[in-house]
Automatic annotation (TrEMBL):
The keyword Nucleotide-binding applies. The keyword Cell division does not apply. This is ATP-binding cassette domain-containing protein. Keywords: ATP-binding, Nucleotide-binding, Transport. It comes from Methanoculleus frigidifontis.
């Protein structure tokens, strides 16, 4: 079921390196300054292929900015990020965003069916060459049946909507999936289902970085937990 859509990490025609001997992510000395404020300072860590790394830390400690730097929504002020051996800074940001997909805290779906939402990224010029997966298969991978394809996206529960957002990211077959507090906007029951989805994706070999406020969640989801404070890595255990 989890393998019912391709995980080939195809970078057709882009000439990008995908070196399996390298970590999925290697971050060295990453920094980001906003005006006078240093929001990330000397952040270094690696994520192995197939690992789930959980990131925690107080509000304002730089977790979201870190994820946005990892998929180039925010440009770092310094340091390096490698994705399977490719220097992210020397890549087209659009390409990096396909290889390293970010799913935000609040599920955002467009008016229309679930299928139309899953197909949306393929309408971007930059993704024209990307193979379209079997959308029903991707929905099954996040624990939703094929019957969801035709559903109106606006009628879904919070947990269902968040899983559709994760599915939409998975449709591009990213090498790394970034999840920013994926359950914080959800009720307890929906949060449990999304957590289970994350565990299943990781069991299927997906590399994941999940930011969470919830220490229990961090410990159950992550093989390692990275704690941040004031833009720095406090520890990784
Ligand atoms: P969190 O750990 O809660 O996710 P963030 O990464 O969102 O924290 O934010 C870290 C710090 O960076 C905060 O002080 C925030 O105000 C600041 N910050 C985030 N984005 C911007 C921005 N675009 N411009 C200026 N400051 C920002
Ligand atoms: Mg945040």
């Amino acid at each position: 079921l989890l393998r019912s859509f391709p995980m080939t990490f195809a970078s057709a025609g882009t000439g990008l390196v995908h070196d399996h001997r390298c970590p999925a992510l290697r971050v060295r000395n990453l920094s980001r300054v906003f005006g006078e404020r240093s929001v990330l300072v000397g952040v270094s860590f690696s994520v192995e292929a197939g690992e789930t790394l959980a990131v925690t830390g107080p509000s304002g400690s730089g977790k979201s900015v870190l994820l946005k730097c990892l998929n180039r929504l925010i440009e770092p002020s310094g340091g390096t990020i490698e994705v399977f051996g490719t220097d992210s800074m020397h890549c087209d940001p659009v390409e990096i965003r396909r290889r390293v997909c970010l799913v935000g805290q609040v599920p955002v779906l467009f008016p229309g069916t679930v299928e139309e939402n899953l197909a949306y990224p393929f309408s971007f010029q930059a993704n024209r060459h990307c193979p379209r997966p079997d959308f029903g298969g991707v929905l099954e991978a996040v624990g939703l049946g094929r019957t969801y394809l035709a559903k109106d996206a606006q009628t879904l529960s919070g947990g269902e909507a968040q899983r559709v957002c994760i599915a939409r990211a998975l449709c591009l077959d990213p090498e790394v999936l970034l999840l920013d507090e994926p359950t914080s906007a959800l009720d307890r029951a929906s949060a449990g289902v999304v957590e289970e989805t994350i565990r299943r994706l990781n069991a299927g070999g997906r590399t994941i970085v999940v930011v969470t406020h919830d220490l229990r969640q961090a410990e159950t989801l992550g093989r390692r937990v990275m704690r941040m404070r004031d833009g720095r890595v406090e520890d990784i255990v």
